[in-house]
Structures are given as C-alpha cells and as structure tokens.
Amino acid sequence: MLLAVAAFFAAAVLAPTALRTLGLRAFWLVALVPAAVTLWALAVPVPHEQVVPWVPRLQVQLAFRMDTLALVMTLIVAGIGALILVYCGRYFTPGGPGLPAFAGEFTAFAGAMLGLVLADDLILLYVFWELTTVFSYLLIGYDAEDRTSRRAALTAIVVTAAGGLTMLGGLVLLGLRAGTFRISEILAAPPAGPAVSVALALILVGALSKSALVPFHFWLPGAMAAPTPVSAYLHAAAMVKAGVYLVARLAPAFAADPVWRPVVLVFGGATMLVGAWRALRKHDLKLLLAFGTVSQLGFLTALLGAGGRAAAQAGAYLLIAHAVFKAGLFMVVGIVDHATGTRDLRKLGGVGRSMPITCAAAVLLTASMAGVPPLAGFVGKEAAFAAFPSDPPVLAVLVAGSALTVAYSVRFVWGAFADKGIEPVAVHPPEAVLAGPVVLLAVVSLLLGPLAPVIDGWLAGYGMAYPAGAADEPLALWHGFTVPLLLSAVVLAVGVALFPARFFVARVQDRLHPPIDAERTFRLIMRGLDFAADQATRFTQRGSLPVYLRYILFALLVLPGAALMSGLPWPGAARIWYVPAEIVVAGLVCLAAFATTLQSWRMPAVLCAAVTGTGTATMFVLHGAPDLGLTQFLTETVTLVAFVLVLRRLPPRFVERQYVGIRRVNAALGVAAGLLVAAMGYVAINARTQAPISAAYPQAAREAGGANIVNIALVDLRAWDTMGESSVLLIAAAGVTGLIFVRRRPRLPRTVEAPGGTWSLPGLRSFGEPPEDAAATTWLRGSETLSPERRSIMFEVVARLIFHPMLVLSIYLLFSGHGTPGGGFAAGLVAGLALTVRYLAGDRYALAEAMPIGPGVCQGAGLGVMAVTGLAGLALTGSVLHETVLHWRVPVLGEIHLVTSLAFDIGVYLVVIGVVLDVLRAMGDELDRQVEEEGEEVITA
To answer: Is 763 within the bounds of a domain?
Structure first.
C-alpha cells in the first residue's frame, strides 16, 4: 500500500517532464498509474494492512489498512482519476500555460487522497488530509492570472485549513483518550466520556468544512473556477469526499455518542436542502452541478453517519453511484463547453441533436442522479428511505431533498441539450477520446442498478460494523410494492412537476432570503481579521529593531518570569564554578558585554560583542565540551565577517541618540532578561525530577560506533531535530539575505558621512570586469579587479597559503566527527571560512572561481542528501534515519569502519557551506554591486 501511494507521488514528479516531452499524450501515460492501482485494489485481499515505524516514541506510524470502506474509496480515487486523466489528454489545448505543473499537481492530489483513505493512523491521516488541501489550492488556482481563480483558491484553503486545524486537536485528543493513534484499534475499543465528545465535535468541524456542508458550503461552488477535469475529480472522488469518508470511518464506533448523531443528521439534512434549493436558480451548468454536489454530500453524510446498518450500506452504495454520475456529468459540461464555447443554459439550444451520444450518456447519468429506475441512484435512494422507518423528520428531509434533486436534474438536461425554441448554437462535435470516459461511466451507472445484490454482498464487510436493525433489507432493484417505492414515485412526480413551475419557484426564491448568508459572514470575518492584523502590525511593527527587542524581552519577563515566581523549587547551595579560570573568562565576557553598550562607534561595538561569543566558546572548552567550543568559535568568526561586510553600508558611528529615559528602560529590560534567563537555567537544572536522557548518550554513542557524543546526537540520536533545524536555518538565511536583494528604499549616496569621519565606498572596489584570460594567469582575480589601494599583498600571500589547508581541515573534521571533535557543522564552517578568505583576498570573481556552484544548489543538495539518507534507512532497516555501522578489513589499511550517518553529516556540511555562501553573496557580492552601480550613476551624472 505504501508503494501504491508512493507510485502516485513518483508519477507526480515525472509528469511535468513527460508533458514537456510528449505533450498532451503524457496524460494517458500518467493514467496508467491510477489504472494499475485500481487493478491492484481489486486483487488485494481484504482486510490487509501494512505498518512501517515512523515516530515510535510518539506512537506515530506509517500504518495503512485496506478494508471494505478503504477499497470502495480506493476504486473511486484511482478509477475515476484514471478516466479523468484520459479525458485531460483531449480537453486541454496543446502547449497551454501551466500544464506541466497541473499534471504533477493533479497526480499528487490523487496520491494524497489515496493515502488519506488507506491511512490507519490518525496523524498520518491528518498529513494526507492537509496535502489534499494544499494540492486542491494549487489546482483551483490553476489560472493564476485570473482574480476569480485566486479568490476561489484562497477561500477554499482558508476554510478547509481552518477546519483541518480544528480537526487536528480532536484527533490528538481522541488518540490520547484511546491510548493509541491506530484507527483500527480505536474502532475496535472506542473510548467514551466528555473528552471524547469534545474530540468528536472538533473532528466533525473538520469533516463538515472539508465536505462543504452548511455553514461551510459556500467554498465549493466558488471552486468551479478550476478547469473542468479538476471540478470532476474534486466533486466525484477527492477532497470533498474526504469529510464524508471520515464520517463513514468513525461512525461505526461513535454513532451512539451524544454529539455525533444530532450534528451529522442536522447539518447533513440542512445541506441537502440548501444545496438543492440553490441549484434550481443557477444558469451555469457547472454551478448547477456544484450546488447539486453540496446537496448530495449532505445526503451522504446523513446516511453514513446515522449509525444504522441499512443506512450505512445505502450510503456506501450511493457513494459509488455519486462518484460515477457526478464525474461523468462534469465531463459532459466540459464537452459542451468545448463544443459550443458556453456553459450558460440560456444560450444553449439544439445541442442534443448535434451530439446525440453525449446527450444519451448525460441523460443516463442525470437519471441516476435523480433516482430513476433501474439506475443506481434509484436503488440507493429507495434503500435510504427504507433505513429510517421510525424517524419521520429525517425521512421527510430526505424525501424533500430528493424531490429537489429531481427538479435540478431535469433542469440540467433541459438546459444543456433541449431546443428551448432559441437559435441552435454552433457545435463542434467532440473527439471520441473526450466522450469515451463519459460513455463508459454512463454504462457503469446503468449496470450498477441490476448488480445491486452483488454489490450489497461486497459492502457487507462494512455494514457488519453497525448494529443490525429490524427493518434491514439487502440492496436490490425490486422489493415489491413498499412504502419506500411509493416515496420514490412521489419524489419523481414532485420533482418533475417543479420543472414547469420553475418561474414560480424563482419568484419564491427571490422573496425568501436566508437570515444568515454564510459567504457574506465569511467575508466579514476575513475583513475583521485583516483589520485586526493591520492594527496589531501598526502597533508592533514600527520598523525599529530596539522596539522589537523591547517587545520580545518584555514577553520573556512576563510569561516565563511569572512561571518562575509561581512556586518552582529553588535549590539550596549552588556551585558557581568548577575551575578558577571560569571566573576570569566570565568576568571578561561581562566586561565585553558592558563595553559594547558604551561604544559610539560601530566597529568597536562589533568587536566587543565578538569577545562575548569567543568567551562563551572558551567556557564550553573549560567545561569539557571541545566540540561545542569549536563550533561556537567558528560561528563567531563567520558572524564577525558578516558584521564587517554589512558595516560598509552603515555610518561609522551610531548617529541616532536615544533619550535618557529610553536608554534606562532598555538597560533595565536587558539586565532583567539576562538575570531571568540565568535564573531559569539554574532552577531548571537543579529542579530536575527525572534522570536526564543525556545519561544514556555515552552508551548510545558506543553502540553507534563513535565517541563524539555531540556529533552522534546531531546526526543519529536526534537526526530528525537536525533536519528540521537545517530547514529553519535555510529559511532564515533566505529571508535575511533576501532583504539585501529587495531594495525598497532609495539608494544610498556614494559616501556615507557621519560626525567624526567618513568612509569612502567607491574606492573599496574597482568597477572594471576582469580580463578574459585572467584565470590562466593568476590565482586571485583581485589582483586585476581590486583597486590598488584596496589590495593587500600580505593577505593575498596568506590566502594562498591557508586556503587549501583549510579545505583539507574541513574534510578531516567532517570524516573524523564521529570519534573526535568536528562533524558536518564545524567542517562546513571551516570550508565557509576558507571561501571567505578567498573572497576577502580577492573579490566576488575570485569567490566565483573558487566555488562556481551557487548557494541554493549547495543548500538543496544538502537537504536532499539528508532526506535520501532517511529514506535509505527506511528501505534497508524499516526505520527512518536508522544508522548502520559497516565493518570490513582492507589489506594494509586494516579494519575500516563506515557509519551510514556520515552521509547525513555530509548533508549538514553542504547546508552550512550553502548558508555561508549565501551570506557572502548577499552581504559581499550584492553590496559590491550596489556600490558599483551607485558609483557609476554618480559618475554618469
């Protein structure tokens, strides 16, 4: 099952390239993946499960389970997906903008939906749930230049993501109360109590928002801005079916909960009526079907969540029937739109005579939607009526909603294909490939009715999870003359009668206005949030770093400070130092920090601040942590270089003088925050109630085949943390360096003057390009590009001497980090410093020669290596990022030990080099360019 899901995502990665190479025919190639998964699903035994450990300590697993309900949804997701991909091969115009990305996003969307329905872990289900949200956003906003598409996509992701976050709280609470996050185990032994009711309420909010039930129904019709294939898949097999599936999955265990049944029946019934009522007024065929989908989703939710066996099997059967007729009808709308250039039923005339095959298929599909015998819709609706013999209010809602369904079904067929007494539109008959999937779905819909008994036996595996009812009957095309049959006849009669009365119905709708407009309420809420965010931003984001620091330090004093004073145990006697040298180093750090606050010149302030960092590194060494000391020292060196590069664009002195009162406030906040952090660290260490996990690190390090606990913790014991921190580091680096490239403010003058001195910038670099043959004649380009007053022969000689040894040292630190101080982070910093020396001795041309690969490539390659290492551990040992120690004996060299986490460390090494390169590119290279551009402008003027 994991491979089936992975196949979709692999196809999604390859689909864009296939589209660029093969054109629209690539859609047919991609369709082979869901087609193969469909055949696999039919062959796999049920039930069947697969479990791969993911985060064992949090009880999170890559757990997949194929049971009857999952099989139904798999056939819908994969089968309908394959047909729509075939349809795409003739629907789109060759060479259309964004088609390669669309192919990948659509395939990934299908893969996420498949993972969702197969997931047997609550957290894994949520991951796929949110993936469907993200991919649906991309698909709905396919036409990025169209404002309507962007707005529809934004509305969809806001509503469904908000519901998803609410649902996440419910899933976590439910898993904690059950003692497991495995869905099958929860359903086998469901917990109970008020906390479970709260969890179910939160989960239902997510399900209702995902399936566009009232009051979240407004986002789905807006999603019709997407291309027709997206609409067909979205409504028939994916996204909106996720909420219905979740209700069907949890109902067998929780239908008896006091929260469950009222919520499901009330909101499901209301949605069925509201959607059908709104569909009667729509002139756009896609919007008509969209509101019809809203109605049908309410119907399915009420059936599958009611808690009875008969209702559940009727709902599962209608789930299949709805996927078939709704996918086919949306593709019919796409064919009509292609053939005529419009979807407005007021402008369509005579289409049925011009496209008889498409018209016949549409009539069959619409008849199934309306519940006309002997089609699938009739069997399902009759079974639904029979499932509520003792619940008249629910039965009345189902009958009324079904009658409205018949009415808008007749309106759809009449609007799309009837003559209507208007001039026939010009029609371009569709290609066979375009109409083929529609005809196939029409035939399937026709066969589902007579095959109902067979399907009923197939669905029994799902229905058996519910308690049996006294009036339960198997699915069949004919049960005799019964009350459900009479109700079906009434539904058809009333629905057909509503069509001639459509003008009267329209006048009634004009007079009836809902007391609360859900979409308008949503827009008001969004405006309110925007206004609140704007006001909060105006108050907090004032463009002043000291102000930001005041807010941060104040929050630190209020929140953790209150916790510290609320009763945490204070230790008694304390050991202030271990060796006398610590007193000296600590004193120097404090003096340097105090001296930093007294400086009026920027460079001395930076140097004093660097002393504090170097002192901290020394403290690490004195405490027996040479690896931390080395890393801290290297980090301080890189930071100092970055500061010096930035200072070229700032006045030499701090020009702005703060008021005495503000300086006192800043001093008080700084001192109080420093004391608080020291006190918190002291209390936290001494108030420990459990043995620290670090006590087990030495033994774990020996088992990992190393002696450097710090590096082993980073690349093995806590590799997940390192991977996340590396991602955050890259994001921060991209954000900070991006500020250099996005120049929103007016350009600075050639020189920056301040009281006490002037730094002339144009003399720092020459404006000429290096000669073409410079690489063949010199090692450092700076000898040809730097102005003579900026060259340092001594520094160039030193750079020649230490550049290559520094690179060799970095490689040594990388490979020796498992047993001695070093590792990927320290090694990357050393390599980055070597490149920094090369840049400072030369210029950006020298840096480009030394490292022709861009920082983005290094960073991406590093993260890629880390990810591949994790997946390799999953493939080889069944656990992500699992380490393996390889031993073999080599002649002369002796025994060789190779740890697989070294590959992970190489990824860290590349990431750090990429970050240093990013800093040099932005604060060195880009600032050089800005200086040259401003110098050229002034010279020209």
So the answer is: no
For residue 744, the model assigns a pLDDT of 45
Judge if 594 and 703 occupy the same domain.
Answer: no
C-alpha separations of 137 from 40, 225, 526 in Å: 29, 11, 18
Residue 524 lies inside a defined structural domain of this protein: no
Q: Are residues 476 and 586 in the same domain?
A: no
190 and 244 fall within a common domain:
yes
Q: What is the C-alpha to C-alpha distance for residues 129 and 134, in angstroms, rounded to an integer? A: 9
DSSP SS3 for 895: strand
Position 644 pLDDT exceeds 90: no
Q: Which of 657, 683, 709 is the last residue of a domain?
A: 683
Tell whether 561 and 422 lie within a shared domain.
Answer: no
Q: How far is CA 313 from CA 299, 387, 453, 498, in A?
A: 13, 10, 12, 30
Q: Are residues 218 and 159 in the same domain?
A: yes
The residues near 367 (Cβ < 8 Å, ≥ 6 apart) are 375, 377, 409
The token duo for 824 is 């990927």
Do 732 and 636 lie in one domain? The reply is: no
Average model confidence (pLDDT) across the chain: 86
Write down the residue that tokens 């120049």 correspond to.
Answer: 743
Cis peptide before 47 (omega within 30 of 0): yes
Give residue 675's domain range: 542-568+575-683
Q: How far apart are CA 676 and CA 144, in angstroms?
A: 50
CB atoms within 10 A of CB 573: 5
Q: How many Å apart are CA 630 and CA 821, to the nearest integer?
A: 8
Q: Which H or E element spans position 121?
A: none
The Cα 245–Cα 124 span in angstroms is: 15
Indicate whether 669 belongs to any domain.
yes
- Beta-carbon neighbour count of residue 62 at 10 Å? 21
Residues 329-376 have pLDDT tens digits of 999 999 999 899 899 998 998 898 889 999 999 999 999 999 999 999
Instruction: Pull the structure tokens for residue 76.
Output: 């819908």
Q: How far is CA 941 from CA 359, 928, 938, in A?
A: 72, 20, 5
CA angle, corner 180, sides to 176 and 186, nearest 5?
100
Distance CA 370, CA 85 (A): 27
pTM of the model: 0.73
- Average pLDDT value for residue range 183-193: 94
Report yes or no on 415 lying in a domain. yes
Looking at the fold, whether 480 and 555 belong to one and the same domain comes out as: no
The pLDDT of residue 469 is 74
DSSP string computed for 213-249: -TTSTTHHHHGGGS-HHHHHHHHHTSTHHHHHHHHHH
Residue 270 has, within 13 A of its CA and on its CB side, a CA count of 14
The strand ranges marked E within 335-432 are none
Phi, psi of 175 (to 5 degrees): -65, -40
Query: Do 89 and 139 fall within a single domain?
Result: yes
Q: What is the pLDDT of residue 752?
A: 37
Tell me the C-alpha distance between 686 and 683, whole Å.
5
Number of domains within the chain: 3
CA-atom Rg of the chain in angstroms: 34
Q: Which two tokens stand for residue 481?
A: 């003359």
User: Alpha-carbon distance 594 to 609, whole Å?
Assistant: 9
3-state secondary structure of 141: coil
Q: How far apart are CA 173 and CA 897, in angstroms?
A: 45
**What helix, strand, coil percent values describe the chain, rounded to 5?**
70, 5, 25
Residues 6+ apart with CB under 8 A from 815: 902
Domain-ending residue, one of 683, 707, 735? 683
Q: What is each CA distance from 20 to 14, 16, 32, in whole angstroms?
A: 10, 6, 18
Distance, in Å, from the CA atom of 884 to the CA atom of 888, rounded to the nearest integer, reads 13
Output the DSSP codes for 279-331: HTT--BHHHHHHHHHHHHHHHHHHHHHS--HHHHHHHHHHHHHHHHHHHHHHH
In tens, the pLDDT along 506-542 reads: 888 778 777 778 888 999 999 999 999 999 888 888 7
